[in-house]
Amino acid sequence: MLDVLLLFSSICTAVVVGASQTITGYRGERVDIRCSYESGYESYSKYFCKGDCLIIGFKNIMVKSGSPAKDERFSLTDDTTARVFTVTITDLRTEDEGQYWCAVEKTFTDDYSEIVLLVKLGK
């Protein structure tokens, strides 16, 4: 039975919700990325992950609610009334460009929304 449970938890690790969003920011400036979530998940942990976050054990979590950010330029605030958490990245760099995931941490299956961040040189 334990083997079945472990197999199940390995398979059901990610649910992608909503359409992908493309966000454009400018080098040296700040960008706010708004991530919405469904009712009932207000008290759950949220996080913002870069790259191949849907693969077990390979999550590059940039910032998570209740924890210090991997990079101090990243911060996360959660408006539980509006059911939106906002990730702010300050002092944008070209290497910040890429695929990210807004995530709500749930038992067995985290919910993910894809974000593609483009970083331009200037306005």
Task: Work out the oligomeric state of the chains in this entry.
Answer: single chain
Overall mean pLDDT stands at: 86
Derived from helix and strand composition plus strand pairing, the structural class reads mainly beta
Task: Report how far the terminal alpha carbons are from each other.
Answer: 58 Å
Main sheet properties: 6 strands, mixed
The percentage of residues in β strands lies in 35-45%
Poorly predicted segments:
1-13
Rg from C-alpha positions? Answer: 15 Å
What is the overall silhouette?
A: globular
Number of helices in the DSSP assignment: 1
* H/E element sequence: HEEEEEEEEE
Tell me how many strands there are: 9
The share of residues in helices is under 10%
List descriptors:
1 helix, 9 strands, three-stranded antiparallel sheet, 123 residues, mainly beta, single chain, disordered N terminus, six-stranded mixed sheet, 45% strand
Describe the protein.
- The chain has one helix at residues 2-11, and strands spanning 14-16, 21-26, 31-36, 46-50, 60-64, 74-79, 84-89, 98-104, 110-120.
- Mean pLDDT is 86; it is low at 1-13.
- The chain is mainly beta and 123 residues long.
- The longest helix has 10 residues, at 2-11.
- The strands form 2 sheets. Strands 1, 2, 4, 5, 8 and 9 form a 6-stranded mixed β-sheet that branches.
- Helix content is 8%, strand content 45%.
- The chain is globular.
- The chain starts with a helix and ends with a strand.
Layout: helices, strands, pairs:
Elements: H1 2-11, E1 14-16, E2 21-26, E3 31-36, E4 46-50, E5 60-64, E6 74-79, E7 84-89, E8 98-104, E9 110-120
